[in-house]
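Notebook entry, structure prediction.
Reason for the run: the old model in the group folder had no record of what sequence produced it. Starting over properly, with the input documented here first.
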Amino acid sequence: MLPNYPIITLLTDFGSKDIYVGVMKGVISQINPQINIIDLTHEIPPQNIAMSRFCLMNAYSYFPEGTVHIAVVDPGVGTQRRAIAIKFKNSYLVGPDNGLLTGLLEPFLTSKIDINSNHLESPEIIAVELNNPKYWRTSQPSTTFHGRDIFAAVGAHLASGIPLEQLGTFIDLKTLVRLSLPSCRLTDDGIEGCIQYIDGFGNLVTNIPGEAVADKNWYIAISEGKKKPKNKKHKPKKNKLKNKKNSKKILQTEQHKLAGLSCLIPKGQTYGDLPSGQLVALVGSHQWLEIAMNGGNAQQQLKLDLGAKVQVIISHQ
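New structure, fully documented this time:
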């Protein structure tokens, strides 16, 4: 069911310096000037599919049914990668088939829906390849700007009530591209995960869900100085995390700068639970565990990037 005033969201890596976002909005308005266009973000790092995937996953649930989400972070624009649209829980996802859109679908593609069934048996997720030029801006789209010529136009038609099946041919859900990102896993001491997103404040968002540590006493550990020793016979120092005496000891901010030490970050409820300049681990508004610094930038302090491993240590004392 379409909302009274159709909504389209836009998520891109285009930034605000150039006209690309404005042009996409113009194409949408030419097709239907009544559509409400909401910018999720246009500041995704260039070509960073993983971060755009995270943003779309965490924004989706805040919009009404019938919303069309257009996401364009598209390093493969103009190549053989498919342009697709997906119906998911009575809303729509439009963009390139490069893993950006399928973050939302992972639980359904892996367990809740039989991906061998066809679209009639599994109406919760329907995907089509956008190969019907009738609903493009032009039948000869630019090889470098599908956001304008295909995705914006298709999204506007969807928001205006054109059925998904008219936009192209159905896709076997098994063939949708999915990013092979590390998953969190249980360990003897707790949970191992990785950094999946870094926000504008430098907060490091992990892929460990907050519910995994609900009602538990926990903290986050990060091993710094991961370079391999030059002498193969030299044995690296054992990780002090296995020493129970160290499980309660939180290294001071000055120590975080010393390579080769394990950085232990205490749990908090708010950013201000520790003094200014101190690191804190908490469950963010997105319901993932994150590492932050009160009044500072955790990413700059810890020099961690996407995919860096983190360890949640659960204390049973």
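Summary: Helices lie at 20-31, 49-59, 106-112, 146-159, 298-302.
The old model has been moved to the deprecated folder.
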